[in-house]
Structure formats: structure tokens, C-alpha cells
């Protein structure tokens, strides 16, 4: 048998006394005048009185005011009229210990008949702890309510079918609708109709897998204006782990979205301006290149004229000269087409392209410039490159920039000048374009600043080229890196993720 700890109460001298002392809850018996006749062991522990100290005293000594004052009258009224407020009903009241401290109790009172009249037995339960827990619960639900109501973040709670049943003030303000109105809607009713599919799929997954999810949702205000938002949602479960509702926070990112869009447009405009600037610098080389076929065309045309005026217009010979004219016109046309593509301005357009083709087109333009110099161009186009899903003009702008920087870095150097352009597969499903030169490279302290906007070491430089190139690279999910090559010169490598053929369709 497990030994009982603590001191056992003194043995009762009758059966009822033993029964009362065995009870866990305090029990008190009084007569119809309110005088205590029994006070069990639990009551002694709870009130701090010995039974002998209270037996024969009015039970009101166990009550604080105003109950103490009112008790006699209450008993009298009940004894006279039978009108019960506690007896047989039970009630929550306040009791007072010997030391004057008070505590809440649940009191139930039963009535019995005895020789001298009526008697009452009171069973009470100290509910201080329950009250404390209730108060804590009340406080924390009040805190939660305040957080919910006054959170600057819009909060929306739905059942598992997406029916809204609770929203906070910020949510009402965000959508321009009242709480009552929102609570008649489904979450999906607030989304732009054509953009519901993706978030609804995310909620379905969340409902199936649990946890939380984050998705971008385009909502609509009551006035029809759009809200670009980030929505964080969590699946709430009951005690048994059964999903019960979605609790979602909506962060309005419309301003950020507009700013990003504007920044993107500005960047595209800047890229366009610098591209035009670069081409402007190349114009004499390009003009020279276009001039050559034009001169050749003029020469061939006057040869034709001479042949015809001389009456020796042998059709075969004339045809040969005309074909040469056509070939030269095609050559000039190619240069113009390349230029037009690069000077074009407009929304970024991505398509599946071959990097080798992109590089070859840029190389053709740069070649004109190189011709007048003693620099050599070495081009190595790798095989089996996966296609890339890119804005071709932007990628060409990067290559053009890197090649021109490479040429400028070797200006005034006595060493053999070499620009090497390579395309290769750096790792599976990626494509790299590297531009290397035999220039002096960069001192370490400049390497760190290389991609900063406005960093330049050139007198006429703007310092925007590389920062634009880098943003084009990251915008395409790729990267632009600097390294030193085997000659100690600079090597810039643009890496781009390859695409499968079905992408972009
Ligand atoms: P800018 O050409 O107008 O200076 P960039 O952003 O294209 O602007 O280049 C920034 C700086 O990076 C250049 O001024 C130069 O100091 C350095 N740089 C770029 N390319 C090379 C290179 N191939 N070799 C050495 N330094 C380079």
C-alpha cells in the first residue's frame, strides 16, 4: 500500500463525521439560524479555522461583506417563504479565510430536516485557480482581439471552403468594404477573376498538406481598382489536428509593385540610352562598313552602265555584275538590320534563341571597329548549347558592352592585343558567354566596385555599362562574373540558364 503523506485528520467520532472528513471538498453543515454544526477537514484546510473554533458560530464568519451583512436576512426569508437563491441551485460566491483573505467558490447547498427544524449542508469548491485560468484566457483573448483589430496588416479568416467569417479593420479598409459585407463573400470573390486559379490551387494544397503558404494574389477593391498583395496563409487545426480554417494575412504591395514596374521601365530606358550611346561611338566604324558595299554597288552600277552604253551588253556578263550588286546590297542590309535591332526600343521580349547566333551578330558589328586597330579577335562558338529564353537585344547589349570594354582596356598597350569571345556549357543546362582580353585586368580594390553604378576609371566613362549588364543577367536568372584570365587580363563571363524547347511557347 502506498503510505499516505502528511498528517491524517483526527478520527471522526461518528459515521457522518468520517464521511465529511473523507470528502475532498470543504463541507459545512448549519442549522436554520445559520450556526455551524459540522466543519469538515477540507473546510479546516481551506479556511484556516479548526472545526472547534467555528462550530456554534454563525456561518457568516466565513463570508466577506456584503454577503456577511445580508446572510441573516437571506436565511430568514428562505425559512419563511422558501424563496431560494442558492439552495438547490448552486452559485458562485466569495468566501473569507481566517486571515481575512477572500477567494471565489462554487457553492451548492442542500436542505434537510432534523429534530430542531431545518438544516443545510453546504459543499464548496475553491475556484481561485479556475478563475485565474479564466482570467488569463480572457486576457489573452482580449490581447488577441486587440492585435487582430488594430493590426495594420489585413487579416482574413475563412472556413475550409474559403467562406470569409472574420476580418479585421485593416482588411475592411483595404477592400473598401464593411465587415458584414466581407463576411458574406468568399475569399476568391475578392480576387481578380482571371487570376484566381493559382492561389486557389495553393489553398487546396495547403488544405491537403497543412502548414502555411505564401502566394502573390491580385485582388480587386470594391471600386474595381487592383491590389497587388502578398498573402500568407496558415491552416488552423482543432485539438485533434483536424483542419478547421485558414488564417490569412494580406500585405498590400501595390506601391512596391508600381515602383518596381517603374524601376524596370527606367532601367530599360537607361539600357536603351546607353546602347544608343555605345552605337553612337561605333558609328564611324559602322558607317565605314556600310560605305564599302555602297561604293562597290556604285562601282558595279557604273560598270553596267559602261557595258550597256558601249553596246557590249552581253546578258551573261551583265547578270554577273547585277548579282555582285545584289550581294553587296545584302551585306549593307545585314549591317543595317543588326543596327536596327539594337536601336529598337520597346517592351522586353523574350524568346527561345541560340546564343551562338546572338554572339555572331554582335561580333559582326564589333569587327568593323576592330579592323582599323591592331587588335585581334578570336571567336570560339561551342557546340550543343541549349537554347536560352531571353530578350536577344539585351543579351547582345551585354556582349557588345563587354567587347568594347575589352578593346578599351587594351588601348595604348604595346603587347599583342587580343579579344577572345567564347560560348560554352559551364554546367549542364546552362550556357556561358565569356569575353576575355589581354589588358591589365583590375586591381583587387576595384574588382569589388566593378558592378556598382557610376563606377568608372575612364575620363569619359559613365560607369553604367557593367551595372546594366549585371541587372540584365540577373533579370534573366543568370549571372555576370569577373575573373582574371591566364594573361592577367579581364575575363567577364555571362551565364544563363538554358531552356527546354517547349518553354516560351
Ligand atoms: P564605363 O565603361 O563607362 O567606365 P563600365 O560599367 O562598363 O563603365 O565599366 C566600369 C569600369 O570597369 C571601367 O571604367 C573600368 O575601370 C572597369 N573595366 C570594365 N571592363 C574592363 C576590362 N575589360 N578590363 C579592365 N577594366 C575594366
Overall structural class, as computed from helix and strand content, comes to alpha+beta
Task: From the alpha carbons, calculate the radius of gyration and give it in angstroms.
Answer: 45 Å
Tell me what portion of residues adopts beta-strand conformation: 15-25%
Helical content stands at 40-55%
Quickly list its features:
505 residues, alpha+beta, 5-stranded antiparallel β-sheet, 14 helices, 17 strands, 43% helix, rod-shaped, binds adenosine-5'-diphosphate
Short description:
The protein has 505 residues and is α+β, with helices and mostly antiparallel strands. Helix content is 43%, strand content 24%. Strands 2-1-5-4-3 form a 5-stranded antiparallel β-sheet, sandwiched between helices. The chain has a 5-stranded antiparallel β-sheet with strand order 7-6-10-9-8, sandwiched between helices. A 5-stranded mixed β-sheet has the order 12-14-15-17-16.
Describe it:
The protein is an alpha+beta fold. A five-stranded antiparallel sheet has the order 2-1-5-4-3, sandwiched between helices. It has a five-stranded antiparallel sheet with strand order 7-6-10-9-8, sandwiched between helices. Strands 12-14-15-17-16 form a five-stranded mixed sheet. A hairpin with a 4-residue loop joins strand 1 and strand 2. The longest helix has 56 residues. The radius of gyration is 45 Å and the shape is rod-shaped. The N terminus is likely disordered. Bound molecules: adenosine-5'-diphosphate.
